[in-house]
Amino acid sequence: MYNNGKVHPAAEAVRKRLQAAEIPGDGPEIGIVLGTGLGSLADALEDALYIPYAEIPGYPVSTVHSHAGRLCLGRYRGRNLVLQDGRCHLYEGYAPADVVMGVRLMHSLGVESLVVTNAAGSLNPLFPAGSLMLLSDQINLTGQSPLVGLPDEPGRTRFPDMSRVFDSRLRELAMRKALQLKLRLETGVYLGLAGPQLETRAETRMFRAWGADAVGMSTVLEVIAARHLGLRVLGLAALCNQNLPDDMAETSLEEIVAVAGQAAQKLRLLLDEIIPDI
Ligand code: HPA
Question: Which CATH number goes with the domain that contains 271?
């Protein structure tokens, strides 16, 4: 449940590696959780330090093949970044505290702004597969919270406000950059589930009626943990299939990952422009 006992030793181990690598700068300022297909950003870092999760004490190692599993630190477009390349999910059997360990670790390293990215299914008939969506809000339907069981710490609320989870300045920045790039960027509500099964028609009909535009199996717990820590959060989804109740095509993970790769290339273009101005 409560995992902060693990976060401090993990952060210490990462700091030692940073010192040993003599990487210039003041440590990371921006954290990015890379979703399916977005690993290319990790390879573009300058003065980079790559630490496999297995080398970070207490860090959960993802069992999903499409998720590499390393923390990447370095400079990109003039900013110090830490990238979480690979995340673990509830459907792998991890506890919520493990799912959000990367976010807590990045916060502990000094990050103040967090970009969460993911591959999601579109529930909105106007948002085609291959397009990008800026998260305006989220619905946590995992039935879990990373904050359950946390001790009541002085100076940190146990009941964080969730009325505006995504930072308005960062959202405006993303919209402006998308416009400059002539990239279509939809705006909508992301609904997060535990999975791993995909949704039934009845479920997608219900989610749509509830106001969701996209559905996926990640992100929502990370965003809750980030808001609890006071991080500014920007959320971006690569929509890789249309998941429509009245016209539902069969979907496989292979298809989702292939389209995620294409949408991720667009997401990379957008991130390249957003990062310098975060
Ligand atoms: N449903 C749930 N998760 C997903 C989907 C979907 O349709 N597409 C990508 N991740």
Answer: 3.40.50.1580
